[in-house]
Design a protein that fits this description.
- By secondary structure, the protein is α/β, with parallel strands linked by helices.
- Helices cover about 50% and strands about 15% of the residues.
- The strands form 6 sheets. A 6-stranded mixed beta sheet has the order 10-11-12-8-13-14, sandwiched between helices. A 5-stranded antiparallel beta sheet has the order 18-17-16-15-19. It has a 4-stranded antiparallel beta sheet with strand order 1-2-4-3.
- A hairpin with a 4-residue loop joins strand 13 and strand 14.
- Helix 10 packs antiparallel against helix 11.
- It is flat, with a radius of gyration of 49 Å.
Length: about 850
């Protein structure tokens, strides 16, 4: 019985931790990752899908390093299923499907950059479990736990997709996860029965709870009994040590081999030294049997629970499979978005006309491997059928071929390509590439034979243009990349065969990009419609490539220069130059001169770009300097206003002294002079503080000047000259008011206009004119002003009112927050001009007005 329990302990990792008490120690579980799967990259090898590509296209993808890019993509997945999907990424065959895949990636990039990013789609692979349960096989507890994890992840993703319906394509992909009410009930059942560690919960059923508690009680009785034996004098001499163990699932004690006859019981094991036997005393047999029976009952109940839960999963196996497929799709889309950010890639416009307008294109694998990668503009439209790229070895010709081939595959897989926004890429349903040495000694193929064999296969696989299909429908659907075609043979025959091959491919309406050193192909590209030249730059000063692609110009091979740089003797190089045909020497010299001129133009363009950037920086600095100067000027004006305020305070002290003197000797002339000085200083302050105000004496104002009534903040037009007058008429709006000359401040000078000939005035009732005159005389509106501005206005108004002999002043400050009122009343309480002040009555404005009675 103990043997059966021991076997059960090691073979049932899904049992709950509370059941460990049944076995006298912790239950050992098999190691499981948090999502129930191992993401060891070595377990999944990228592979091309043979169903989507022909053998020749598969070979092209291999030479373009497409599997390496898929490996880089799979690193960004969070599940085994997603990794498998990325390793065999489907290449769409229709342009509309390609646009859908591209939109999915673009939307996921946007979602990942938001404050609420798309959740990481990590989930275990339950596909095998769903197949088995669909055939009626029960699942183990860890497998049921994994089903619950998939359901939980699906619920999380469904809630996120529902919140972000603006991402149309992502919402469409995640739509199968939305209405899963039946699966929610399944998840609740699984969560209630299976613990996160993949074991059965004690609360999975009432019967399991009862059996577990019963087994625990038997276990505790067994421990108590063993403790009595270990501390009994009867066993003191026969026990090897004071401990107990399990053998074959039954509890035993270690007994000295020579003393085994003194204890009746069952022998279960012998130590390695032979000095100890493990004996089950007869008094423990019945209790061990009871524990065995209890364990078997627990196992039967656990099996029953697993069968019931497996049946529930089997009922929803189809829905679970769809859910698993959807999560896999989303995990793959997330990986595509992550790779796009890693490559600093961008979505591009797509066309089916073979137009390629790539700006600052970079090889994706180089971007992953290096910090700095030379970017190139590769621009040739649908009118170019064959692009011939020439230049020195190791100059970047083959890299350019691979960029175009990888980009063609990437857009079909829904991947963004590493180039600048605003680029455009043609859609090619098939990509063929003959790059590298295809020599195969096992098939008796030389390099020449191997390349020719590939060309023959290509011509057989790509059909002739059908008359039934329009030129637009077939135009540039196939991209062919040829690296040094028809080499390893006689150069003259090779050049002739290569020329004929390119002309034939162009007639088939294929898009062809070819690298070569044949001068004949350079001349062919220069003279044939539908052909174009391009080259990679070579720095003659350093005799090193720049990896810059120049569109429209052929390039020289620079073989002799490179050989000299590598240490070839000068005499050999001179002999080689003499052996060159005269036309070849002229052509190479011409190409070298063109390349050198192009290099200088490129350098000049770079310098011009840098100069433009420096000019833009200088303009920004000048703008910032101007802003700083304006701020400094405003601060200076504030300082000037503070100084003028101090001058006002001194002037008011003089006025107060004059008033005191007036009370004694009634010298009106001195009061008049003080008043004029105060008004003059106030006008100077107004002119300095506000550039829109005039700093002229009121007596110099002319008819037609714009003036401001400082007490009310009203601007009007002067209708009569103020010379020798105390009050003048001012046009305000459509009416006229009488204003005290001392209350007028000239606004920025305007051209005097003669008084209107029509002496008729707007009809204003006398009572209204009298009220306006009184308001002008004894009212001050400071609403909307700051505390400092309002104080200055109030102080000036008190000065004028005192000099004019006005008994009271009404200050309109409004309600607001009450701060302005408090500031003004604090000042009035300490002013020597003020006898007392109070809030206005309801008709006068209540707490929004302060009535000041002057001394």
């Amino acid at each position: 019985m103990l043997s059966a329990l021991n076997r059960l302990r090691w073979c049932r990792p899904h049992w709950p931790a509370p059941l460990a008490l049944l076995f006298g120690g912790p239950v050992k579980y098999f190691p499981v990752t948090p999502c129930g799967v191992s993401l060891d990259q070595s377990t999944v090898q990228p592979a091309m899908s043979p169903s989507s590509l022909s053998p020749l296209q598969l070979e092209a993808a291999e030479v373009l390093d497409w599997p390496k890019l898929l490996e880089a993509l799979a690193v960004h997945t969070h599940s085994t299923q997603g990794r498998k999907r990325c390793a065999t990424l489907k290449l769409e065959a229709e342009l509309d499907d390609v646009r859908i895949r591209q939109q999915e990636t673009t939307e996921m990039v946007v979602l990942q950059e938001q404050t609420d990013p798309f959740p990481s789609v990590g989930f275990p692979d339950i596909s095998d479990a769903l197949i088995r349960v669909g055939k009626g096989a029960p699942l183990e507890a860890p497998e049921l736990r994994d089903c619950g994890l998939v359901l939980g992840m699906a619920e999380t993703v469904a809630r996120y997709v529902a919140r972000h319906r603006e991402a149309d394509r992502i919402h469409e992909v995640g739509k199968p996860l939305e209405d899963q009410s039946q699966l929610r009930r399944l998840k609740l059942s699984l969560d209630a029965a299976i613990l996160p560690d993949g074991s059965i919960a004690e609360s999975a059923s009432s019967e399991l709870r009862r059996l577990t508690h019963h087994a625990q009680e038997l276990k505790q009785r067994m421990r108590d009994k063993l403790e009595q034996i270990l501390h009994s004098k009867r066993y003191a001499d026969v026990l090897q040590e004071d401990y107990f163990v399990q053998r074959q699932g039954r509890y035993v004690v270690p007994v000295k081999v020579e003393m085994q006859g003194r204890i009746p019981g069952i022998l279960h094991d012998v130590s390695a030294s032979g000095a100890t036997v493990f004996l089950e005393p007869r008094e423990l047999v019945d209790l061990n049997n009871a524990i065995k029976v209890a364990d078997l009952e627990i196992e039967r109940e656990v099996r029953r629970i697993l069968r019931e839960l497996s049946a529930l999963v089997a009922e929803r196996a189809e829905s679970l499979s769809l859910m698993l497929e959807t999560l896999t799709d989303l995990d793959c889309i997330m990986a595509r978005a992550a790779l796009s950010r890693q490559l600093r890639a961008a979505p591009v416009s797509l066309n089916d006309q073979g137009r390629i307008m790539l700006r600052q294109a970079r090889h994706p694998l180089l971007v992953l491997a290096k910090e700095q990668v030379v970017a190139n503009d590769i621009l040739f439209d649908e009118s170019v059928a064959v692009l011939v790229i020439t230049g020195p070895n190791t100059g970047g010709k083959t890299v350019t071929l691979k960029i175009l081939g990888l980009f063609a595959l990437m857009i079909r897989a829904g991947l963004h390509i590493p180039c600048d926004p605003g680029s455009e890429m043609g859609f090619f349903s098939s990509v063929y590439a003959d790059i590298g040495d295809a020599q195969d000694l096992t098939k008796d193929l030389s390099s020449f034979s191997a390349h020719i064999t590939q060309m023959v296969q290509l011509l057989h696989e790509v059909p002739e243009q059908s008359p039934a299909r329009s030129e637009e429908s077939l135009l540039r659907e196939v991209l062919v990349l040829l690296d040094e075609p028809v080499t390893s043979t006689d150069p003259t025959e090779g050049a002739a065969l290569a020329s004929a091959l390119l002309l034939h491919l162009a007639q088939r309406k294929l898009k062809v990009v070819v690298t070569t050193h044949y001068s004949e192909l350079k001349a062919l590209a220069q003279s044939t419609t539908g052909f174009a030249n391009a080259s990679v730059q070579f720095d003659l000063a350093t005799l090193s490539p720049t990896y810059r692609v120049v569109m429209g110009l052929p390039g020289g091979s620079a073989a002799l220069d490179i050989a000299g740089r590598l240490g070839m003797a000068a005499s050999i190089l001179d002999d080689a130059r003499n052996r060159l045909q005269r036309d070849d020497r002229l052509l190479e010299r011409l190409l070298s001169d063109v390349q050198e001129r192009q290099r200088r133009l490129t350098e000049d363009l770079d310098h011009a770009g840098q100069a433009r950037l420096e000019a833009e920086r200088a303009a920004e600095e000048a703008k910032k300097l101007l802003t700083d100067l304006q701020l400094s000027e405003r601060e200076e004006r504030k300082g000037m206003k503070r100084r003028l305020t101090q001058e006002f305070q001194r002037a008011r002290a003089q006025v107060q002294a004059t008033m005191d003197e007036l009370k004694r000797d009634q010298k009106l002339e001195k009061a008049k002079q003080a008043k004029e000085r105060l008004v003059h200083m106030e006008m100077q302050s107004a002119g300095d503080g506000d550039p829109d105000r005039m700093t002229v004496d009121p007596s110099r104002l002319a008819v037609g000047n714009q003036v401001e009534l400082t007490g009310l903040g009203i601007v009007g037009t002067l209708l009569e000259a103020p010379e020798g007058k105390k009050r003048v008429r001012v046009k305000v709006g459509e009416g006229e008011v009488l204003a005290t000359v001392a209350d007028l401040v000239g606004v920025r000078a305007s051209r005097p206009t003669p008084a209107p000939r029509d002496n008729r005035r707007p009809v204003v009732p006398k009572a209204e004119r009298d009220m306006i005159d009184r308001d002008i005389a004894n009212a001050l509106d400071v609403r909307g002003q700051t505390g400092d501005e309002a104080l200055q206005s109030v102080v000036a108004a008190l000065d004028r009112a005192t000099l004019a002999g006005q008994p009271r002043l009404r200050i309109i400050h409004g309600y607001g927050t009450g701060r302005l009122k408090a500031v003004l009343r604090d000042y009035l309480a300490a002013s020597p001009y003020v006898a007392r002040f109070q809030a206005g009555d309801r008709a006068e404005g209540g707490e929004g007005v302060t009535i000041v009675e002057l001394r």
